[in-house]
Amino acid sequence: GYEVHATYNKNNPSHLPCHWHKVNLLRDDEVKQFIYDVQPSHLIHLAWEAAPPACYVSINNYYWLKSSISLIQHFTTC
Fold it and tell me: NAD-dependent epimerase/dehydratase domain location, by residue (predicted)?
């Protein structure tokens, strides 16, 4: 078997069968604590701003890139 842990920021999609954690992925301290608490063996990261056309030029892309790098760094050191 396996356990699936997922994050949400605003609305808990509790109808999906997994362990939900309220985490703002743009906050490094919350990401670090989440990774420390869960100790995942695998990571699938799909969070990003993807609403065209704003996503093509949004400054949020920079924040998501920075957050993604941090998430991977915390994951590889847990």
Answer: 1-64
pLDDT at 29: 97
What is the domain extent for residue 37? 5-77
43: which 2 tokens? 């990571």
Number of domains in the chain: 1
Q: How does DSSP classify residue 8?
A: E
**Residue 9: strand, helix, or coil:** coil
For the record, the structure tokens of 11 come out as 């609305």
Q: What is the pLDDT of residue 34?
A: 97
Residue whose C-alpha is closest to residue 64's, from 43, 47, 42, 44: 47
pLDDT digits (tens, 9 = 90+) for 42-73: 999 988 888 899 888 999 999 999 999 999 99
